[in-house]
Amino acid sequence: MSLDRTYRSVPGTTIFDAEQSAKGYHLNQFCMSLMTAENRASYLADERAYLDAWPLREEQKRALLDRDLNAAVREGGNIYFLAKWGATLGLSFQQMAGSMTGMTEQEYRAMMAAGGRSPVGRRIDHAVLDAAHTDPAPPVEHAVITAAVFTSHVPAIGAAIDHGKTGEPYWQPVFEGYEFSRSWQRDNLPDVVLLVYNDHASAFDLSLIPTFVLGTGAAYPTADEGYGPRPVPGIEGDPDLAAHLAHSLISDDFDLTLANEMSVDHGLTVPLSLMFGEVDAWPCKVIPLHVNVVQYPVPSGARCFQLGRALRRAVESYDRPLKVQIWGTGGMSHQLHGPRAGLINRQWDNAFLDRLIDDPAGLARVPHLEYVEQAGSEGIELVMWLIARGALSDVDGEGEVELRHRFYHVPASNTAVGHLILDNHPRAATPATEE
Fold first, then answer.
1. Distance of alpha carbon 42 from its chain centroid, rounded?
2. What is the rounded end-to-end Cα distance, in angstroms, of the chain?
3. What would the pLDDT profile of 102-129 be if each residue is shown by its tens digit?
């Protein structure tokens, strides 16, 4: 089912959606820079030089230099951001609005004083609206989730890779558990990995605590977590697919935070290293999906599971034939603080793996308290695995999964390491029969 973008047909109206946001990202960030007196003075002193310091398209620069707000909006500008630019030029909001309608400020004020512009004759044509709401045929080609990967993301694993310690006796059993995985990944390389992870006080501090964050940007640098950034490549995103996912998920009542810029820490880079090895560039695009599991309240397993189901619907409504893998990361049992620091629960971990494979819906009902009591305070990260598991076809009876690899090892630094690969086999759509 295609996404409803009927709003694009409203006459004289440009809705600022994810695509417009991506198009106008640097233009709107330029406007934000004008929130300091120093920058406003610099801009007014030499507009062209100030604009040239930003990665703006020439069409965007020309729109600003020509004071053409309609062109700026077409180029991705949002009126609330552009208002800061207008204020820098000494323009009132009515002057700006009037300029977009072909009116002088006085004419626009008079219109507003008379009751404003009538919507009569400025609504969507009924034929356009009817066509938009006719059930569309599903896309002939669409993206599909081909597999799910589940893995711990222990920072010490990254350090062992970066410092050439993978062959040491302590680390060798851990990395042997991923030998099959790297071979499998070479044979099943996706176009995009949708990687579910949690930030560890790197991109997000206590000034902002979003529950779910979808990375919609073009690229993400590696975070400095106090020891310097890991010597691994940065992440190339997929803004087009991410914008589609954002639209679909929010329409499906999942209220996401969208991030065009953020750094990514070991929660994301260690799984990539484990699955792809040491490379000069990651061999596919990556869309980060951050989940808050640091400060309570954290999302329930049931909510995460439902998010996974919504993600599959979103991916399969994307009309490009992409191969997408979804990865759930974090865990397994571990506690990093207090008198229980060092807690490991092999029995509970392996029961979790069993249920993740065979009874994910039941596993999704496990309360937070059980995670904390049985798997340690940081074991709550495992709710993120339920997002990836919920995205597989068997959950909704529309296919099957195949276990390709299972691995469990204790310890890796302070953590039990768990790892699964499940191939996804969605059932082929049944062609419609003619009556």
1. 35
2. 23
3. 999 899 999 999 999 888 876 666 655 5
